[in-house]
Write a structure and sequence with these properties.
The chain has two domains: 57 residues, no CATH class; 95 residues, no CATH class. The protein is mostly helical and 157 residues long. The protein has eight helices and no strands. The two termini are 33 Å apart. It is 66% helix and 0% strand. It comes from Butyricicoccus porcorum. InterPro entries: TypeI_RM_Rsu_C. This is Type I restriction enzyme R protein C-terminal domain-containing protein.
């Protein structure tokens, strides 16, 4: 089953769980099994579980999910930018391109543009820094790609 169908199926189960006033534990077990059975969704498991734990009195589970994902995605992105001291505008543009193209490109100059300046002398270890940034961006991409509606990180058209 393609990835774009599974989140819809899971959201349908979440709605069913919500409609039982969050009491039908069998639905939770079904959701967990569906996530565990899908390699594409394993990286999204914590996100889905956090959402389920947080829903109580909502009108539209789908709208709530999209809002939740957008908020979490922005929080995670801001944290990565701060932790790694990345150039914010360039990082947002890089991620716009990555999500549009369906992959994180680790070769070429685009990844270099987002990295903070590192001394080429004094042991700045740019390669190690780049590797760490790529690892975090790949994890971010895997967690958020294919869920939560359309994605736009920058204000550029």
């Amino acid at each position: 089953m393609p990835i774009f169908h599974l989140p819809g199926y899971i959201l349908m189960l979440v709605k069913k769980y919500h409609d039982t006033h969050c009491e039908d534990k069998e639905v939770l077990i079904t959701i967990k099994k569906a996530i565990d059975a899908s390699p594409e969704l394993r990286s999204k498991k914590a996100l889905i579980e956090t959402f389920i734990a947080g829903i109580n009195d909502v009108e539209d589970v789908m709208t709530e999910w999209h809002d939740f994902v957008a908020e979490q995605r922005e929080q995670d992105l801001v944290a990565i930018i701060k932790e790694e001291k990345l150039k914010e505008a360039e990082t947002r543009k890089f991620l716009d391109n990555s999500f549009r193209e369906g992959e994180i490109k680790i070769v070429g100059t685009d990844i270099e543009k987002i990295l903070p300046p590192v001394s080429r002398f004094g042991g700045g270890n740019r390669a190690k820094k780049k590797e760490g940034v790529i690892s975090k961006l790949k994890a971010f991409f895997e967690k958020y790609f294919g869920i939560g509606g359309s994605v736009k990180f920058s204000d550029e058209p």
